[in-house]
Structures are given as structure tokens and as C-alpha cells.
Amino acid sequence: MKRLETTVGERIASAMQELSPSGRRVARKLLSEYPVAGLDTVASLAIGAGVSGPTVFRFVKTLGFESFRDFQSALRSEVGARHESNLSQTVRTVTEGQEETRSALQEVREAQIRGIEHTYAMVRDTEIEHVAELLANRKRKILTFGGAFSNILATHLLTQLSPMRPGIQTLPSNTVAAAAILEDLGRMDVAVIFDFRRYDAVSEKRARIARDHGAIVILVTDRWLSPVAASADHVLTVDVVASGPSDTLVPALALLEAVCELVTNSLGRSAVDRLGRVDPIRVALQAQN
Fold first, then answer.
1. In the 8-state DSSP scheme, what is residue 164?
2. To pair with 250 at 20 to 30 A between CA atoms, which of 45, 52, 239, 282?
């Protein structure tokens, strides 16, 4: 399999834990206005991040770029892909499809397999394992949510983990209830957020509130990075490119399943004991009168 060229966002996410405090300030500034903040001058980025010009150059070198010009060139190449709409994807797919000889089903299958393989190639094992450790800590409450397109992943995380450990919930659509849940977040808690292209502004607001309340923020996003990344402590990126007009959630679901497997393994006997109590209740609820 040919590995995809790593995006700037992926490089930042991968390097975040190893960056110096000043390097993290540059990263946070970039992520808060990605990718626009990196397309101005070195001086502008340095002032915005509250660091020196040499710190910006060191940051760029840490990401693997030989020069700030190379760094900006990579950012510019991502702008179009990051903001591509469903309509533009549809037009491009139909146009390209007129020249294809392979079947539509074959295209879909290959795109999904390629997306899963690229996702596992891009995300570091240690990062996945660390995220799983956080979710396996029964002392931490877990809050999870997504946007209109991605909230199905949050629901899946809830369904997978709630029978294994207590203290996990999604945000309700009721704004008052959602606000109360966010207010209750504390430093021992974790917020898991799913957000992909055509990024959800409400999710970004919720993420900032969760971080302001001290919660650890975990973001699952695409290779071009949701604005939520500016508030995230951990970022897992997935390859969402599909054969058709819409992005695919299949690679994200595969990664999520892997995380849930690791969490269950870490919980061990406590997960089995809880499932032993939960499952009879589920059976009773589903039984016909």
C-alpha cells in the first residue's frame, strides 16, 4: 500500500505531546485558525502565538519541513481539500466516473479498505493506547458527541462502552440539558468529540466549554483537522475520502472499534461483572409482555 503524504495537521497532532511549551503555543495558534494562521509571515505567526521568530522556525523544522516556505506550500495544498463541499465532490466524482471502467461496488470496496489501512498507518499506536487508557479509567466520566453527520459515532461509542463501564453519556438535543451536562464537567472527565469536513460550529463551542471546565478533550477528525483541534488534548485523524460524493465514516468506525476493544481489555473483570448485571436488564426490557 502506498502511504498518503502526511498533512500538516497530522504532523502537528502527532508531534503535540513532544513539543516544548513554546512550540505548543505555536501549534495551538495554528490549530485555532487552521490553516490561515500559517499562511501569513513568520512574524505574524510568532506574534499571534506570543513567541519569537526562531521558535516558529524550530517548530516548522520539528514538523519535518526544511523551510517556512515549504511549510506554507504544504498548507496551501490542503486548503481546497479541507473546504470541499458535497456538491463539488459530487460533480468531481461524476466527471471522473465517466472515464472509469471498474464497477461502482469495486470502487466503494477499495476506497473503504484503503481508508482503513491509511488510518492505521497514520495514527500512532501509542496515541490510540493512551486514549484507551483514559476511557478505561472508571473514575473519569465520559461525555461524547458529534455533529449532524458524525454523531452516530458518539452513539456507537456509548453503546459499546456503557455496558462495560459506568459514567458515559452523549449530549441531548435539549439545549438546557446539554448546558447543564457541560457545566458539570471537571478535571477528571473526558470529552470525546467526532467532527469531519463541513465542520460543526456547535461542536467547536461545546469543545471549548469542555476544555474551559478542565475536561480532557479527545478529537476524532479527518486529515485536515476540525477547528475543535485547537481545544483538543489528543487528536486521532482518519482518512475519510470515499469513492462517491460523500466522505466515509467506515475508517473512523474501525478505529473506534479498536479503541473500544482496548478499553474492554483494560477493564478486565470489572467489565465482565458489569455486563453480567446490565445484560439481564436489557433482556427484560426487550422481552415482549
1. T
2. 282
The secondary structure of residue 64, as a DSSP letter, is T
pTM (predicted TM-score)? 0.81
CB of 171 closer than 8 Å to CB of 181: yes
Alpha carbons within 13 angstroms on the beta-carbon side of residue 95 total 6
What is the grid cell recorded at 228? 475543535
pLDDT of residue 2: 46
**b/e sequence 75-109, b meaning 16+ C-beta within 10 Å:** beebeeebebeeeebeeebeeeeeeeeeeeeebee
Is residue 51 within a helix (H) or strand (E), and if so which, with residue range?
A: none
What does residue 220 show for φ and ψ, rounded to 5 degrees? Answer: -110, 120
Domain 122-286: which CATH number of 3.30.420.10, 3.40.50.10490, 3.90.226.10, 3.30.300.350: 3.40.50.10490
Give me the residues of the chain with pLDDT under 70, please: 1-4, 83-101, 289
CATH architecture of 8-82: Orthogonal Bundle (1.10)
* pLDDT confidence of residue 123: 87
